[in-house]
Structure formats: structure tokens, C-alpha cells
């Protein structure tokens, strides 16, 4: 982490809001930069800077806190919630997408953030990470369309029976979205598998080759000679896979395999075929992400067809309401 700390470039010291530690204040959010999360609680804040900061090539405003523990250094960006939402929308979807799709994403990003503030602030030193583990967040690209979409939905979140929902969403589904219990092991009254339209997504069909070295490391196997699909979810995604070395067999959930491969190596569990080659395994499939909740590319298509953001959100999260949170800023 020393390299990361040294790579922080303070580009312009500016006067910014001083953020309190009111655990009920959802006007700001605490973002752990990166996806490396501490496993111990021996952390101590050693420095805070109020500046625009460049970290590994990405720009962040607000405050940057440097925390140190036995596992190294960790960086926290403390930023106003609405600025955070702008960064998420710019990072998660195309910045030139239809306005209604951008608005739908803005409401979901804000809802996701508020739910995690409520869940995490009383027990952790950060609310969310800046990676795909939660929501991708950078401030590098901001276009007028994103600013407009976030500003016009300012403070709006999705609620169910008065509480912020768990606003799961993903990049692309083909055919249907996934049932939440297949991924997260839990049912939600406002989440269910729904049919989705065809989209111009680049993830409609994909092929990925994963080397034996990568698979053996992820699965803790010495050798892999065969891979089989054992079961499917109700939506047709792969549920379980079996890896064999010729004598011993190992069964693993497809969702867990994606996690072990750091998500992007295997775009989704909607796997259509598997071929074992000389140097690795070729997976062919469709879609991108876990498949639960709003399909971002489907929102793009629905917006193109004239649906507004409220209609898009109601389709993917039936029974929810748009509520405006009380902000302190």
C-alpha cells in the first residue's frame, strides 16, 4: 500500500465542507477506495486532507482520510452523497445514455448508498467500497447529461414499506433476470425474475477462455481434466459446476466461481457451453453480472422505447415507491 499512498497527488487545496460523524447523516458517504477490505479492526486514522486528490489515476473530491492498521494503509473518500451518485452513474453506465436510463441509475445508486449507510456506519469505518463489490465510483468523467439526471432526481430513493430497498442491479440479462435467492440466498418482496427486452449490449453473447493455472489457483486443485454443468436455476443460469482431475471431483456454485475469479473473468452464470482445451477452459454464455434487479442495458432499451425512469424502476422493483430523503445539505 506504500506505493498507493505515495501515488496520491494533492492537485489543489480547496475549502470544503467539514463532515461530521453523525451516524444518521445521509448527506455524505464514506467510500473505501479500491476493493481490498480490512479483516481486522485495529485501524487508526493518521491523516485527513481536504483536497482534490488523484489516486491511481482517478480523481476524488471531498476529504481523503488515511487509515493505518496491521494490514497496511486504507484510503477513505468522504464526499457529499449527491456528488457520489454522480460519480457512480458516470462509472456504472454510458455517460451518453438516454436521460431516463440515467435517472433510473441515479435513483438506484442513491438508494444503494443510503441502505449501506444505515447498515454499515454504526459498525464500520466506511459505508461502501469504490469497486464492483458495491458500486463502481470514480469522478473522472462527468457529462452534462449525468449532472442533469442526478440533479433532477436529487434525494430520491426507492423504498418498500418506508425502508430503502436493497437496490441490486447488474449490467445485462438476456431473456430474464435472476431470482435473488439464487445469488444472495434470500427472497425480497420487491424483487423477482422478469422478462427483459433484447438490447444492443456487447454482452448479449460472449466467449471467455480461462487458463488452467487461473482455475487451479481459484479452486485449489492440482489438475483439471473435465468440467460439467450439474444444475440450473429456474431462469436457466448455471447453478452448480463439477470440476474433475480424473479421479477426484469438486462441486462449486457458479456464483462462487465468479467471485473466486474476481467477477469479470466469468461475465455471468448464464453459461451456454463449456469446452476443455489444451491450455484451459472455454466458457460461452450471455449477459453480464449477477442478474438480479434492474438490467442496465434493458433500462437503456426501455428508455429508447419511451419509458420514463419511474416506469423502468417500477418494472424491475414492483411494489416500491419513490421517496425523497431528508438531507442536511
TrEMBL record:
Sporulation stage II protein D amidase enhancer LytB N-terminal domain: residues covered: 73-160
Listed name of the protein: SpoIID/LytB domain-containing protein
NCBIfam families, A to Z: SpoIID_LytB (TIGR02669)
Species in which this protein is naturally found: Thermodesulfovibrio autotrophicus
Top-level taxonomic group: Bacteria
Gene Ontology CC annotations of this record: outer membrane-bounded periplasmic space
Record Pfam families: SpoIID
GO biological process, one term: sporulation resulting in formation of a cellular spore
Source taxonomy: Bacteria, Pseudomonadati, Nitrospirota, Thermodesulfovibrionia, Thermodesulfovibrionales
Amino acid at each position: 500500500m506504500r506505493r498507493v499512498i505515495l501515488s496520491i497527488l494533492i492537485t489543489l487545496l480547496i475549502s470544503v465542507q467539514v463532515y461530521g460523524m453523525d451516524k444518521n447523516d445521509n448527506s455524505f458517504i464514506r467510500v473505501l477506495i479500491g476493493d481490498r477490505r480490512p479483516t481486522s479492526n485495529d485501524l487508526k486514522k493518521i491523516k485527513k486532507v481536504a483536497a482534490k486528490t488523484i489516486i491511481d489515476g482517478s480523481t476524488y473530491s471531498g476529504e481523503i482520510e488515511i487509515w493505518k492498521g496491521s494490514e497496511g494503509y486504507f484510503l477513505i473518500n468522504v464526499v457529499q452523497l449527491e456528488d457520489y451518485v454522480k460519480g457512480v452513474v458516470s462509472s456504472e453506465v454510458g455517460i451518453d445514455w438516454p436521460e431516463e436510463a440515467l435517472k433510473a441509475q441515479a435513483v438506484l445508486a442513491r438508494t444503494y448508498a443510503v441502505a449501506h449507510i444505515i447498515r454499515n456506519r454504526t459498525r464500520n469505518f466506511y459505508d461502501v467500497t469504490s469497486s464492483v463489490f458495491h458500486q463502481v465510483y470514480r469522478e473522472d468523467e462527468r457529462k452534462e447529461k449525468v449532472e442533469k439526471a442526478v440533479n433532477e432526481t436529487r434525494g430520491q430513493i426507492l423504498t418498500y414499506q418506508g425502508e430503502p430497498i436493497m437496490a441490486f442491479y447488474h449490467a445485462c440479462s438476456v431473456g430474464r433476470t435472476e431470482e435473488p435467492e439464487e445469488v444472495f440466498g434470500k427472497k425480497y418482496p420487491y424483487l423477482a425474475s422478469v422478462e427483459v427486452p433484447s438490447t444492443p449490449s456487447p454482452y448479449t453473447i460472449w466467449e471467455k477462455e480461462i487458463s488452467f493455472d487461473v482455475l487451479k489457483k481459484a479452486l485449489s486443485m492440482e489438475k483439471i481434466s473435465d468440467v460439467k454443468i450439474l444444475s440450473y436455476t429456474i431462469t436457466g443460469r448455471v447453478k452448480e459446476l463439477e470440476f474433475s482431475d480424473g479421479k477426484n471431483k469438486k462441486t462449486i456454485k457458479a456464483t462462487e466461481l465468479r467471485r473466486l475469479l474476481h467477477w469479470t473473468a466469468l461475465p455471468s452464470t448464464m453459461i451456454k457451453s463449456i469446452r476443455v482445451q489444451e491450455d484451459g477452459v472455454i466458457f460461452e454464455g450471455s449477459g453480464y453480472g449477477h442478474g438480479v434487479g434492474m438490467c442496465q442495458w434493458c433500462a437503456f432499451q426501455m428508455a429508447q422505447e419511451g419509458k420514463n425512469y419511474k416506469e423502468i424502476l417500477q418494472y424491475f422493483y414492483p411494489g416500491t415507491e419513490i421517496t425523497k430523503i431528508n438531507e442536511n445539505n
